[in-house]
Amino acid sequence: MTFDELNLAPDLLRGIADLGFTEPTPIQADAIPPGLAGRDLLGAAMTGSGKTAAFLLPILHQLLERSRGVTRALALTPTRELAAQIEEHLQSLGKHTPLTAAVIHGGVAFEPQEKAFRQGVDMMIATPGRLLDHLRRPYGHLDGVEFLVLDEADRMLDMGFIPDIRRILQKLPGRRQTMLFSATMPGPIASLAKELLKEPVTINIERKAAPADGITQVTYAVRHAHKPALLLHLLKRGGIENALAFTRTKERADRLAGYLKGHGISVTAIHGDRSQMQRTRALEAFKKGKYRVLVATDVAARGIDVEGLSHVVNVDVPSQPEDYIHRIGRTGRQQATGDAITFVAARELADLHAIERAIRSKLPRLTAEDFDYQTGRSVPTPEEEAAERERQEKERARREAAKAAKVKAAAERAAAAKRKAELKAVEEQIRAAAAKAAAKTDATEAVPPETASAAAESPEVVEAEVAAASSAGPDAQPAEPASEATASPTPGAAEAPVQDAASAPQPTGSEAAPDDHQASPQASRSRPVAVDSDRDSVLQRFREMQARRRGGRPGPAASPRPAPVAKPSSPKPKAAPKPQAAPKPQEADAPRPPAEIQKTPPAPQPEAVSRPRAAPEAPAPPAKAASSAPAKAAPPAKRQASGGASRKPGQRSPAKSRSTALSPEREAIVERFRAMRHRKRG
Q1: Which of 65, 118, 292, 625 ranks highest by number of CB atoms within 10 Å?
Q2: Partners of 148 in the beta sheet?
Q3: In the chain, what are the helix, strand and coil shares in percent, each to the nearest 5?
Q4: For 353-399, what is each residue's pLDDT tens digit?
Q5: What SS3 class is residue 420?
Q6: How distant is the alpha carbon of residue 474 from its chain centre?
Q7: Contact yes or no for 47/183 (Cβ under 8 A)
Q8: Contacts for 571-574 with beta carbons within 8 Å, 24 or more apart?
Q9: Given a cut of 80, is residue 426 above it in pLDDT?
Q10: What is the DSSP annotation of 206-268?
Q11: Are the C-beta atoms of residues 620 and 521 closer than 8 Å to each other?
């Protein structure tokens, strides 16, 4: 018989041809004709027999004759994986038809499933729990259902879904076509079938559940703790291409997957604790060959359809014979061949005997070669021993290299720490020296610079220095040679004021009292001043004073100025010395010029204090100093003309001027010194 003889729609036949099927399986040949006729079906079909297409093809053929936009078919399955598998088969068979389908199960969002309810897909494949959640909502209506399928009914009974199924049946129309398929037919399932089905057509109902004919079944007796090691041994030496390994619990599945992964086997696991997305991705990756081993629990035993699965390994013996049949039914599907291996511990012998009674066959016992059942280790071959020695040598060399690198790194860190400590010590010393120097500088510069400069240039200081230089005499050592710009006038011009001052009469009495605005030039010129020889001494004393104010750092000592050497020349009359220019008045923001200083201020006279002061007469300058003194007498005259009414910034008060007046010669010395110092400062 071929599919063309079953009178299916042409679009369905095209989908069947695309899948490569030409002849129906026995259950398909028995179920499709009564299904097309609208009869209820009760089938006992073993896993992998093609029962999914047996109920899908008659339903899809009849849905093509109905209108769209209403859900008219509903299939209930125990697991998410089985629901996804049915939906995948539907899409493959009906890809040339306009029929639509939706999967309703837990582990995913409600919104896409709600959209399927509102749009009215042609067929829904659902798990009982999530379907009830939707039916409790306002949009959850299945009033148009005409076809109902209960797949893996015995598994739904084991999982406790029978009460949920009864609640769902109450919300469905009474008139419908119902199909019930189960690998086994226990009493509760038989009772449920009597309630649901009306004069059903039974298929293989008398046949006992049994594995597919193309599956080779063997057992290995092994200790419970050595089962993972035995599986690893078979994967490495037993020629297993890919395998689906079943355990009883989720914890055992995770531990087994971790053990295999630790020994270089690509493995993944699916069980009830993993989300639907994780389970779907793991199953798809296993189908594509990304993983060699898939570890699962009995929850995933039904609904896993992997094409070309070579081995199924029962790491733990199932407690029910039906579970054993469903497990090994994952291989040898569609009349293919496969191997089923079962590890049996001593405490699992009773379950093994129950399985053998159910399938009416005694399973062969095998012993793995090169496996030590006492220690749970594989006996190495000579090649493996050589490879293991090489691996150990490489590991030893790696550890030694790592140890040497660790020692070297520690030595480098110690050296770096030592260098860092030394640098830190040097930095601390530099910081301490800098702090000490800064403290000394702060103590020196506590007085503002303008205050110190004004104090250094005050008339009192200049007077004291000049007095000390005058008293030192010509034997005093100069501190710095005078430059061309600051040199004294010609010898004739410098000696003339000294001689005049020595021969001038000393003033007495009231003549010694200075005026309010101008000191007596005759009284100033009456004191002898060592003009040429004392200038260097004055500079030296000024430098020592500045050094004391700056913290004891004297400037470089200068050698004494050599005496001028006369150049040989023809006798010529000496030219008259040029008169000294009057000092320029200082600007407001320049340093304040010092007042003139007297070497020995005159003693105060009682008569001068009680007697009213009269306007002084302008004294006549000496005859010899007349040529050089007029330019020097201009500043006192200017101060007298001002009358003390107002003074510019930087000028001294008249009270100080009359007590600290200098002779023109001394004033010239001070001015030259000040100009020299300003040039040195920038």
Answers
A1: 625
A2: 74, 178
A3: 50, 10, 45
A4: 999 988 888 999 998 888 888 888 887 778 878 888 888 899 999 99
A5: helix
A6: 81
A7: yes
A8: 574/492
A9: yes
A10: SSPP---TTEEEEEEE--GGGHHHHHHHHHHHS--S-EEEE-SSHHHHHHHHHHHHHTT--EE
A11: no
What is the CA 84 to chain-centroid distance, rounded?
43
pTM of the model: 0.47
DSSP 8-state secondary structure symbol assigned to residue 570: -
| DSSP code of residue 292 | S
pLDDT of residue 334: 57
CA atoms within a 13 Å half-sphere pointing along the CA-CB vector of 68: 8
Residue found by looking up tokens 């030296």 in the block: 540
- Give the CA distances from residue 397 to residues 380, 402, 404, 407, in Å, rounded to whole numbers and listed in that order: 23, 8, 10, 15
Which residue is associated with the tokens 């021969």? 503
> Which H/E stretch holds residue 378?
strand 377-378
Spatial separation of the C-alpha atoms in residues 408 and 64, rounded to whole Å: 79
Crossing angle of helices 449-456 and 531-549, rounded to 10°: 150
Structure tokens at 422: 């030394």
Specify the residue for token string 């999967």: 103
Return the SS3 of 338: strand
C-alpha 570/C-alpha 568 separation (Å) is 7
Question: pLDDT tens for residues 476-522?
Answer: 444 444 444 344 444 443 344 434 444 444 444 444 444 444 444 44
**Hey, is 86 helix, strand or coil?**
helix
d(CA 246, CA 269): 10
CB distance 557 to 621 below 8 Å? no
Q: How crowded is residue 645: how many other Cβ atoms within 10 Å of its Cβ? A: 6
Residue 170 is encoded by which pair of tokens? 């109450």
With 0-12 CB in 10 A as exposed, 13-18 as middle and 19+ as buried, what is 301?
A: buried
Look up residue 204 and give its two tokens: 């293989």
Neighbours of 440 (CB within 10 A): 12
pLDDT at 194: 86
Helix, strand, or coil here: 123?
A: strand
Residue type, 582: A
Would you place residue 410 in the very low, low, confident or very high pLDDT band (cuts 50, 70, 90)? Answer: very high
Most confident of 374-388, 466-480, 608-622: 374-388
